[in-house]
Design brief:
The protein is mostly beta strands. Helices cover 9% and strands 53% of the residues. The chain is built from 4 helices and 19 strands. The radius of gyration is 18 Å and the shape is globular. 38% of the residues are buried. Mean pLDDT is 79; it is low at 1-22 and 89-96.
């Protein structure tokens, strides 16, 4: 499977937005031994060992899939797969949770960490999908009750299969949260949760070069 690098910023352009707001946005992309793989304000992922500092973010300690960092004098606990944490941001679209900016990763795909019903997931944007879609194993991990949901027929490359239609209480990326989102549970294994039009349709979507901007509709 290809490795996709997800870069997520909430509010403003992909370069320098958090700085313009006087805040920092930090995400833990993964762990390499005792080193944290950090993304800071949309930077390429950087391995940072305990005691080291990257773009103003100091790694204090690491354990398992967590890292404790210090940003602007504040301590944060980051976990792999969770939405980025922010420090010091105020005002503008960030405070209103109305805008998400994604940068394309390898192969031009847009991926980002987020949450479904408060549980961390990794999204892959799919503008051709009618709804948010995930595998049964992902739904089980999140705790979605789909066994009594409406069944649907799904056409795949391997033929027709049965899936389920459910309603997600919330879907969140960064500081932007959408409620009551339709989703499809599929029996096939999927490395990502597909972020389809049941979520994207709530936004005005703009594509510019390698950047996707989601602007909430009001």
């Amino acid at each position: 499977m290809r490795t996709f690098v997800a870069v997520l910023l909430a509010c403003g352009s992909a370069a320098g937005t958090a700085d313009a707001l006087g805040g920092e946005q930090v995400a833990l992309q993964g762990m390499l031994g005792n080193k944290a793989l950090l993304i800071v304000n949309g930077s390429p992922p950087k391995t940072v060992a305990p005691g080291e500092t990257f773009r103003g973010v100091k790694v204090l300690s690491t354990s398992g899939q967590e890292a404790v960092v210090e940003v602007e004098g504040k301590r944060l606990t980051l976990r792999v797969g969770e939405a980025p944490a922010s420090v010091g941001a105020s005002g503008g679209d960030w405070a209103r949770g109305s805008r998400v900016v994604l940068a394309a990763g390898t192969g031009g795909h847009f991926t980002t960490p987020g949450t479904i019903n408060g549980r961390p997931v990794q999204f892959l944007v799919d503008t051709g999908a009618s709804a948010v879609s995930m595998s049964q194993s992902q739904a089980d991990r999140i705790g979605i009750d789909y066994e009594h949901a409406r069944r649907v027929r799904m056409d795949t490359a391997n033929g027709a299969v049965a899936g389920w239609v459910v309603k997600l209480a919330s879907v969140r990326i960064g500081d932007v949260e959408v409620y009551d989102v339709d989703a499809i549970i599929a029996p096939a294994s999927m490395p990502f949760v597909l972020l389809g039009n049941s979520y994207l349709g709530r936004f005005k979507v703009q594509l510019t070069n390698n950047q996707m901007v989601l602007e909430r509709r009001y």
